[in-house]
């Protein structure tokens, strides 16, 4: 069995962060979300992985390399345009050959990995095996409709009027039968080759499509709110570790201070992670906060946030529920009555108290 990991796409919902960085490399607990997926694939006993990449291919390839750090053998497959999940299967046809494969969306996060899912597939080997979970607003997902016996009868991608609240999770398992389905597809109303249409083709042509309704945790980390929630979840499992320099501080609970970090005269309430080379002075870091490498935090307060490497926050009170990008500088505004001075990138979102 091989794996096909999708690491292309433009990440529009995470702009402006993804104007300059692949969305799959935005960190969760100071580790790129893509790495969690690759680790899950390796833990399931899969060794060969094809990674579908687009405009951010150089960054993805630099971050993953040949895959050996994950006990994987990585092959990169260029996709000139993000024309749908089924299009990724189409361009990977030669790589996949006649092997079964798991398709894993590189910006998805599945708690507990995929070992049991892969084991179940290997045992019964349906033409396709899909994971489903209940969501509050299924209009943003591929949606499955099941009959009274729990069999999949219909799938629809981002329907305007969903027939159920069961959304497809971004992990799929296929036999080579899917290649015939993909070859028959026409672009959807979105102009894409939809994997939901390929699975529907399998159903309509008598193939077995096996669903698994999961109650565990899954997130598509495509927006800031979901990134922060996944960060919270991962930080819940960290163990306290102080490898850096700590002086005149109060550290409460599960706090990680990486080697090379310096924390002075500050209070940190875990779970929280401070990256290597970061300097924190006279500040408060609250729960569920990840601060990346080589950052500066001085005279400031932050909690329930993700701070990417080389950012600096100086003299700013109470930042929360925020995603702060690489090399960002956050400072107090000048003491000008009833005025805000802003320098914002394209597609930024700012909330300012009046």
TrEMBL record:
Pfam annotation, one family: NTP_transferase
Domain Nucleotidyl transferase: from-to ranges: 2-235
InterPro entries with a match to the protein in the record: G1P_thy_trans_l (IPR005908), NTP_transferase_dom (IPR005835), Nucleotide-diphossugar_trans (IPR029044)
NCBIfam families on file: rmlA_long
Protein name according to UniProt: Glucose-1-phosphate thymidylyltransferase
Organism from which the protein derives: Microbispora corallina
């Amino acid at each position: 069995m091989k794996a096909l990991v999708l690491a292309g796409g433009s990440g529009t919902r995470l702009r402006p962060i993804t104007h300059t960085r692949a969305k799959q490399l935005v960190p969760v607990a100071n580790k790129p979300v893509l790495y969690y997926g690759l680790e899950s694939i390796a833990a399931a006993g899969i060794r060969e992985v094809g990674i579908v990449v687009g405009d951010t291919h150089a960054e993805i390839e630099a971050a993953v390399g040949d895959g050996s750090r994950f006990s994987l053998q990585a092959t990169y497959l260029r996709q000139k345009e993000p024309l749908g999940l089924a299009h990724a299967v189409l361009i990977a046809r030669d790589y996949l050959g006649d092997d079964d494969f798991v398709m894993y969306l590189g910006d998805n996060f599945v708690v507990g990995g995929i070992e049991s899912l892969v084991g179940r597939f290997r045992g019964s080997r349906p033409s396709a095996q899909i994971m489903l979970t209940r969501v509050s607003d299924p209009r943003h997902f591929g949606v499955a409709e099941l009959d009274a016996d729990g069999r999949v009868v219909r799938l629809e991608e981002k329907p305007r009027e969903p027939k159920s609240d069961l959304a497809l999770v971004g992990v799929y398992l296929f036999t080579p039968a899917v290649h015939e389905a993909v070859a028959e597809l026409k672009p959807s109303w979105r102009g894409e080759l939809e994997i939901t249409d390929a699975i529907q083709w399998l159903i309509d042509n008598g193939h077995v499509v096996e669903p698994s309704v999961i109650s565990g945790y899954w997130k598509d980390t495509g927006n800031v709110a979901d990134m922060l929630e996944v960060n919270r979840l991962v930080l819940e499992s960290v163990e306290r570790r102080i490898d850096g320099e700590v002086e005149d501080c109060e550290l409460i609970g599960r706090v990680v201070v990486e080697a090379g970090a310096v924390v002075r005269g500050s209070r940190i309430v875990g779970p929280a992670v401070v990256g290597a080379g970061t300097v924190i002075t006279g500040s408060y870091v609250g729960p569920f906060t990840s601060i990346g490498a080589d950052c500066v935090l001085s005279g400031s307060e932050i909690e329930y946030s993700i701070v990417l490497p080389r950012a600096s926050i100086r003299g700013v009170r109470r930042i929360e529920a925020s995603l702060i990008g690489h090399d960002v500088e956050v400072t107090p505004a000048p003491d000008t009555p009833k005025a805000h001075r802003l320098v914002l990138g394209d597609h930024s979102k700012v909330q300012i108290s009046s």
